[in-house]
Amino acid sequence: MVALPSGVLGALDSTSDRAVFRQIADQLREAIDKGRFKEGAKLPSESELVEHYGVSRMTVRNALSVLQGEGLVHSEHGKGVFVRPRPPVRRLASDRFARRHREQGKSAFTVEAEAAGSRPEVDSLEVKEERPTQDVSARLGGPRRVLARRRRYLLDGRPVEFAASFLPLDLARNTPIAQPNPGPGGIYARLEELGHRLDHFEEEIRARMPSPAEIRTLRLASGVPVIHLIRTAFDTEGRPVEVCDTVMAADAYVLAYQLPAT
Amino acid sequence: MVALPSGVLGALDSTSDRAVFRQIADQLREAIDKGRFKEGAKLPSESELVEHYGVSRMTVRNALSVLQGEGLVHSEHGKGVFVRPRPPVRRLASDRFARRHREQGKSAFTVEAEAAGSRPEVDSLEVKEERPTQDVSARLGGPRRVLARRRRYLLDGRPVEFAASFLPLDLARNTPIAQPNPGPGGIYARLEELGHRLDHFEEEIRARMPSPAEIRTLRLASGVPVIHLIRTAFDTEGRPVEVCDTVMAADAYVLAYQLPAT
DNA sequence: CCCCCCTACTCGTATAGACGAGTGGCTGAG
DNA sequence: CTCAGCCACTCGTCTATACGAGTAGGGGGG
């Protein structure tokens, strides 16, 4: 039992009607915000906090779970509770699907990651035909069956994004799009080669807390929301040719859009 | 102590190495997902769950706090724990700043809300001159002082969004922009009247858990992230003329963008 | 010198109990 | 019949204790 670093944490206000565990959480949060605990630094252990505040361990754990829910700290069994480092963010520009970017052989993800000095990976590649969900079917104009392409993206070994593309079967079957690796420029380049000249994309963005499955797939820490992006690609005839459903770890991304003012 | 509705919740698997509170959370989550507890419905009380599973109350509370952190349920002191209803979402189209929308007298928020049958409100209106944060200053090209316009938006009495606009002082001082109500079409219409013809907007989107202040301002339930949007408006000379920092309750919004494929 | 094991420390899970405070329905007095 | 007050039920907070399991470091044996 080592004494706490002096002066970092104050005392409780017993006259306050604010719950004790909230007061403790407040003090820890303030100390983190002010940099008295730096990114990645270890907080005092639960038993040290019990000692310092003179409360029971459950109260301390309650306070820590508040901070964990806010995404400020994460705990490691057997080691301690640490201030969550802000991971480097990956920035998605709205022109990343511009035609000129489809020339080179690599995928947008690979190019952007390497430009940022990170090691990109793609796994969980799955390509199969299936019945679409009601939502996907509606967005694609009601096909009974679709080609689904699922993959997970990782940066430096950390999963950051899970995406599923859906294309009408009549359009994708027996084409390079149905191959695990569709070739340079990705499926958008193949679609254009097949005569479906792309006209525009529609993107819908939501943010929410992850499902248990998403927590597993993206290895999300608690307190990290996901960004849910649904993109629909339209060809020049106004036909929807692809729906891409993407779930991203929110702490790894900034989305950037440029809009005309006209 | 009333018996549980039969068959809704199963038994624990004592051979599993999954923690008991997680198993309970799993069963409740599944029951909610499958609609056996509907939106707004009351879950069994803590003591009923204690009875049903034969565990201590803290274990049950632990399970419930998992679901609360996921945003699936919310508790009401003295009443019970309820399945969180999905609130109606407000859809923000990417053309909502198009020039043609600036003709009518009402603000975009008011028009859209009334079209959706909701009662819009704006409060916490504050207009003042101040020193910008480093980030805002950098985005605006480095002014020492800015005009800040802060306001909160509510739908049917529920706060959904808190926004702060920042404009360089030399541009906004002693203009209608410095008035609490800048007039029909909002500050973008005034900017154009002042000769700053708008060219394009840049938007950055992040998602994260709210700070305690944001929880208060937006009266957020636990397990609801926020969408943080930073928009910069540029005039035809390429000068940034406004930065708008917006924090939205994520469960109230879907952002929609349309992107050209060129 | 190296490696294994023990130990002390960490957090994870769970029990049992206590009191407080908000809610809503029932009951008895008026 | 009305209404005030009681009471049972709800969740909120806190204490005290126990054991399990992951981690890291030191010490002792090979």
UniProtKB/TrEMBL annotation, chains A, B:
Q: Which GO terms describe its biological process?
A: negative regulation of DNA-templated transcription
Q: Which SMART domains match?
A: HTH_GNTR, UTRA
What is the native source organism of this protein? Answer: Streptomyces radicis
Q: Which Pfam families match?
A: GntR, UTRA
* Protein name per the record: GntR family transcriptional regulator
- Gene Ontology terms, MF aspect: DNA binding; DNA-binding transcription factor activity
Which key words tag this protein in UniProt?
A: DNA-binding, Transcription, Transcription regulation
**Domain of life, source organism:** Bacteria
| Gene3D superfamilies reported in the protein's UniProt record | Chorismate lyase-like, Winged helix-like DNA-binding domain superfamily/Winged helix DNA-binding domain
Instruction: Please give the SUPFAM superfamilies that the UniProt record associates with this protein.
Output: Chorismate lyase-like (SSF64288), Winged helix' DNA-binding domain (SSF46785)
Question: InterPro entries per the record?
Answer: Bact_HTH_transcr_reg, Chorismate_lyase_/UTRA_dom_sf, Tscrpt_reg_HTH_GntR, UTRA, WH-like_DNA-bd_sf, WH_DNA-bd_sf
Coiled-coil positions are none
Cell membrane found in the keyword field:
no
Chain intervals for the UniProt region annotation (Disordered):
103-138
In which residue ranges is the amino acid composition biased (Basic and acidic residues)? 120-133
Per UniProt, residues of the HTH gntR-type domain are 18-86
